[in-house]
Write a sequence for this structure.
């Protein structure tokens, strides 16, 4: 019985071996046919998907059959040599399929449409702005022109022609199921990184190191930052959103983590290319002229942060989000540092000579236009300045922005007071302060600074420049009016005025008035309303006093020889002369 069982066992084993050998022979024969087909496909240099859709479908079927044969061979005990042959055939097919995949990705890529690139023409239309100004210039334009209201979902475009998406998906699925997923992902990442680099080139974003950025002249860097701000919006809200969707469409059958990993690998170097500029700025020297461009960068990146977080929600993308937050923090520190550097620059801007004419000093124009431009960034500045002070609530009823801008004007006023002392003439000291504080008030009243500074500041500074106007009048005209007083004209015990005293009074009045005219015709009061108010006030005091004086005493000099030397002017003459004042030296002789 034992021998009989042994014989049966051997027979079964032999039968199994014969069956397996027959199966292997069948597999080998079929592999030979499939291998020849793969060689034939591979020998034709033209791309299969360009030739014929049916041929492409046949190629995928050949690959699928080779893969199934490989799976069968793995379970066989006599597979080694044949499996190597099958693997080699599959590898050849996968190599060709990868080439086809890459070809379709490149051949059918679609650039961004012109309407998405329209920002390129905006840069040349921008007028001269504050970034090129200095303490000697007034022209200021703070905020760059950009539109931050449009969201990423409005801009998703087709980066690959929709007609080939199904083919790309089929190739990817075939490579994945054949365990060539790494090769598929690497090929896809490589091609899409190249496409993304082309996008950056079109957006005119240069690949510069931090050292190269720091060596740029400010004019070049200023233009680069403007371009960066506009390009970043296009890059994130158009290109990256579209790139993310493309990745989802092609690898739709696979895990979210895989799609996200591919997307991150494609994008991260280009995002870092953008962020490198922010990092270079943040470590650069603090210069007041940079503040508005850096604020544009800060607000632009902050505005896009939600979009970036949505694009990179998983752990694989956390690096990108963290880097964006880090650069944002550094830019915020730079903004604060630059603002305080601006304050110091005002303190340190001194002179040894008075400003000609006592008009509005270039420093006043610079500072007030600077902070007027800052009003556009009040939300951001309130947040950043509040962080600097460790405050989340407003202190003393004033926002951080209000507190700091009022501090700026206080520093400016102190500087102007020091500058006023450079004038020998006390009247010109007061006129200079009157003009400059009036300019400050008007800039606040006529701009978005008004709600920031508030009515109390405006009222207090109205009082200041009004007081300086009064001081000017007293210093200039009170000494003149002394010659028109009645006291001392009639000697004790006499009933008629002394002609000697009258002649001296008229002579001294003429000399004093002429001296003021010669001196103050070069002085300037730029604001028309202030100039007219000042003239009216002077006229009320001087002309009224002169009319009264000449009405009382002119007749007493009727018989005096050379009467015209003493009574040189009629009130109308003085009135015309006063109209020449406060317009600067260009008005000399205009009415006289």
């Amino acid at each position: 019985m034992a021998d009989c069982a042994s014989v049966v066992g051997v027979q079964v084993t032999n039968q199994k071996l014969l069956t397996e050998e027959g199966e292997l022979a069948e597999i080998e024969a079929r592999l030979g046919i499939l291998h020849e087909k793969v060689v034939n496909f591979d020998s034709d240099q033209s791309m299969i998907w360009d030739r014929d859709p049916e041929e492409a479908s046949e190629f995928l079927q050949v690959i699928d059959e080779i893969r199934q044969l490989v799976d069968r061979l793995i379970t066989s005990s006599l597979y080694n040599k044949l499996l190597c042959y099958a693997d080699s055939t599959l590898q050849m097919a996968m190599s060709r399929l990868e080439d086809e995949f890459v070809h379709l990705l490149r051949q059918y890529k679609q650039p961004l449409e012109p309407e998405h690139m329209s920002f390129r023409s905006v840069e040349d239309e921008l007028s001269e702005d504050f970034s090129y100004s200095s303490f000697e210039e007034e022209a200021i334009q703070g905020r760059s022109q950009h539109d931050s209201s449009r969201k990423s979902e409005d801009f998703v475009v087709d980066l690959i022609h929709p007609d080939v998406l199904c083919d790309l998906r089929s190739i990817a699925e075939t490579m994945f199921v054949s365990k060539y997923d790494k090769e598929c992902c690497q090929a896809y990442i490589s091609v899409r990184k190249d496409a993304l680099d082309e996008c950056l080139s079109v957006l005119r974003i240069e690949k510069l190191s931090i050292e190269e950025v720091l060596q740029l002249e400010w004019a070049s860097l200023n233009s680069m930052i403007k371009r960066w701000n506009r390009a970043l919006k296009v890059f994130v809200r158009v290109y990256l959103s579209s790139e993310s969707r493309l990745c989802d469409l092609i690898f739709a059958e696979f895990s979210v983590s895989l799609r996200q990993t591919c997307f991150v690998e494609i994008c991260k170097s280009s995002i870092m290319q953008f962020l490198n500029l922010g990092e270079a700025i943040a470590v650069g020297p603090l210069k007041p002229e940079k503040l508005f461009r850096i604020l544009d960068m800060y607000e632009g990146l902050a505005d896009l942060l939600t979009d970036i977080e949505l694009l990179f929600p998983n752990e694989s993308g956390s690096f990108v989000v963290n880097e964006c937050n880090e650069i944002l923090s550094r830019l915020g520190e730079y903004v604060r540092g630059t603002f305080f550097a601006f304050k110091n620059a005002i303190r340190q801007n001194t002179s040894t000579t008075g400003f000609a004419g006592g008009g509005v000093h270039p420093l006043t124009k610079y500072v007030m236009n600077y902070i007027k431009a800052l009003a556009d960034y009040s939300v951001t500045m309130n947040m950043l300045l509040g962080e600097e002070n460790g405050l989340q609530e407003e202190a003393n009823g004033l926002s951080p922005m209000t507190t700091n801008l009022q501090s700026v004007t206080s520093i400016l006023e102190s500087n102007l007071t020091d500058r006023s002392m450079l004038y020998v003439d006390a009247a010109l000291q007061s006129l200079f302060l009157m003009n400059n504080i009036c300019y400050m008030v008007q800039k606040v009243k006529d701009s978005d600074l008004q709600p920031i500074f508030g009515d109390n500041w405006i009222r207090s500074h109205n009082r200041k420049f009004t007081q300086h106007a009064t001081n000017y009048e007293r210093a200039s005209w009170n000494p003149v009016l002394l010659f028109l007083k009645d006291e001392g004209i009639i000697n004790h015990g006499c009933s008629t005025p002394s002609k000697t005293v009258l002649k001296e009074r008229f002579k001294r009045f003429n000399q004093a008035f002429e001296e003021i005219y010669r001196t103050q015709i070069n002085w300037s009061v730029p604001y028309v309303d202030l100039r007219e108010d000042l003239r009216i006030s002077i006229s009320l005091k001087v002309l009224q006093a002169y009319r009264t004086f000449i009405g009382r005493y002119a007749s007493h000099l009727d018989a005096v020889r050379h009467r015209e030397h003493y009574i040189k002017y009629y009130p109308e003459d003085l009135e015309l002369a006063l109209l020449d004042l406060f317009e600067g030296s260009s008005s000399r002789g205009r009415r006289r």
Observations:
- The domain at 114-346 is CATH 1.20.1280.170 (Monooxygenase).
